[in-house]
Amino acid sequence: MTPTQTYTVAVGRRKTATARVRVTPAGKNSVTVNGQPAEEYFKTKERASITEDVFRLDDVTGTYEVAAIVKGGGISAQAEALRMGIARALTKSDTGLRPSLKKAGYLKRDPRAVERKKPGLRKARKRPQWSKR
Fold first, then answer.
1. Which helix (H) or strand (E) holds 90?
2. Which domain CATH number covers 30?
3. Is the distance from CB of 17 to CB of 74 less than 8 angstroms?
4. Is residue 109 in some structural domain?
5. Does residue 80 form part of some domain?
6. Fewer CB atoms < 10 Å away: N or C end of the chain?
7. 93 within some domain
8. Residue 13 CA to chain centroid, in angstroms?
9. Total structural domains in the chain?
């Protein structure tokens, strides 16, 4: 971080969802997604809590203010992309947090994505029914 820059920027991805995250230390411990609080944006408590899992680790202490812009994918993929973006931004600002975040699996990109549809098939793998005659 440069002396004039008081925040850290990172990108998190999951499936086709992308989250651009800005983490400010010594904030008011809030997560804002596309201009709305995370609980309001994600609607369910489970999805909103995915984003705050990073802050529940033992090594992550202090207050952080998170502002994120999330695009693409579904709601769950957006929540996981946001979690990854927060974890990446925290490791940029404090390298001592990396081992605990890595052990929790928040820094690993989940490579699973939808398989493409193949010609002659109904879906990616579903085939038309075979008949002998």
1. helix 75-93
2. 3.30.230.10
3. yes
4. no
5. yes
6. C
7. yes
8. 6
9. 1
